[in-house]
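note to self: dont lose this again. the chain is below, predicted strucutre after it. 324 aa total, dont forget to put it in the shared folder this time
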Amino acid sequence: MIHRRSLLAAAPAAALALPVQAQDTWPNRPVTILVPFVAGGPSDIVGRIIAQRMATAVGQPVVAENRPGANGEVAARAVARATPDGHTLLVGSIGVFAINAALRPNLGYDPVREFAPITLAVTTPNVLVVNAQRVPVNTMAELVAWLKANVGRTSYSTSGVGSSDHLTMELFKQITGTDPTHVPYGGGAAAATDLIAGNVQLSFQNLGTVAGHIQGGRLKAIAVTSRQRHPILPNVPTAIEGGIPDFEVTSWQALMAPAAVPTPILARLNTEATAALKHPESRQRLEQIGFTVVAGSAADYSTFQRAEIERWRRVVQAANIRAE
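---
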């Protein structure tokens, strides 16, 4: 077996070994965008929007392929080891590109060293929601006071250990000095369903997961974790407005390539991917389900990703969270 460091050391040489013609004529065959989760989720939606628009622009088929497994590790490992010519890409979430690195010391891929950033695609805030029949509060201050008055008798649902909503609540607990019990589920829909049923009292969930429940009166929203109020929930204050300074958390999706893809191809990928995301029809569809289109530079995403890894590593260590 070749040692992982040897693979990494060989990556630049692999890029240089690509024929100049291959670099100049990208794409010269179909492009595959691996999606590390099942169809219908945020990564899948973003991956398919990019694939559809990019195919029209570049004149080659661009296919989004679902390859779930091991919290994104199966697809991430495949892309990290793919030929670095820009024909195999990965659309992944905050979990794949940041939280896994913070949570799993023996992760089978390095989301920084083994990938080249293309763009941060979209972000979406989490929403702090409660079961209104079980939690008699309307504001962040009232919720914190209620949690402190009911120590040992409160619980929160999440879409799983190490998920964005899980770590958001752990950060909230660390800041506010509260300690509801964690109850993980197999996805956001199940976490919201049990919250509506009253089996848990509160949760941080992605905006797209709970917006309909909030608008339908099944859940009460206390705060959103964006810096400004969200247009889908304009009457819901931010956590910052609720008295928690700098409490800004987003779940996000990004597009990456294998680390040794040549710079000219990465530049073209950024151009095509950001154009796909900013297309009026793409933007409208994404904003309707709670996403904010970012579609910025590779350098901006790289800086953001590294900061996210460090932020969530601190939260994981303080909470002593262990991967399942």
